[in-house]
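Ticket #4471: structure export looks truncated?
Reporter: QA, pipeline team
Priority: medium

Steps to reproduce: submit the single chain below to the structure queue and open the exported record.
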Amino acid sequence: MKTMIYALISFDDQNSSPDIQNIKGINGGNLEIISTEKIGAVVCKTDNTDFAVDKIKAIEFAYVIESLSILFNLLPVRFGSIMESTEAIAGMLERNKTQILHNLLNVNNKSEFGIKVMCDTVALKAELNSKSKPDLSSEETPESENTPSVFRSYVEKKLKEHRIEEMILTYADEVISEITITLESLNTSFKFKKMVSEKTLIDAIFLIDKQLKKDLIQTVTNLQNKYPALSFILTGPWPPYNFVELNLK
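Actual output as written to the record:
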């Protein structure tokens, strides 16, 4: 029987680590801790190694990690991480101790949150377009004076669309800058993606001290009031899935 890893954890005293008997693994399996000095792995025996497309099991796995995050400072492990034996896992912990400790220190007493900034893209384009009111007659276009008016209209239309797209990206950068300045004041780590979809202007994830949750909620409220045309959706807290940088050997 092989062993599935749920999370890598840290603790100061191995003899007084939290009780995990009330948390069950996938299929109700018993969890156990394989430990070395200062770090450990929460694992569970399994006779099934084919989890690649099992979404239900993936959700169960995430629930176990969320339950463990209440008890431990931890690094979530990718779903389906399986090793041959507890001895192999102990060896992995020893080989990667420095790297694991560094990551655990980075996420200590912190939670991951997400902010999605949604917008009505059609309405936003119309608003930005009305504010800009560009003079297309002054634009340099590739056609000559003899260019048919149909082609001229087409080129002008495309130039206008391109300009509005650039304005939306600039607008997104302005909002990101506003969020960044605010999050920096809360001493957070963060990552941004912009124009993720037609309706998602910004998709951000960040790591913040757990005790600053109320400050974060107030920050998002202030941003929503400043940008009423946008919808700010805050999610979390989550275990730090997106802020773990491990290259295990």
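Status: closed, not a bug. The export was complete when the record was re-opened. Leaving a note from the reviewer for reference: The CA atoms of residues 25 and 63 lie 9 Å apart.
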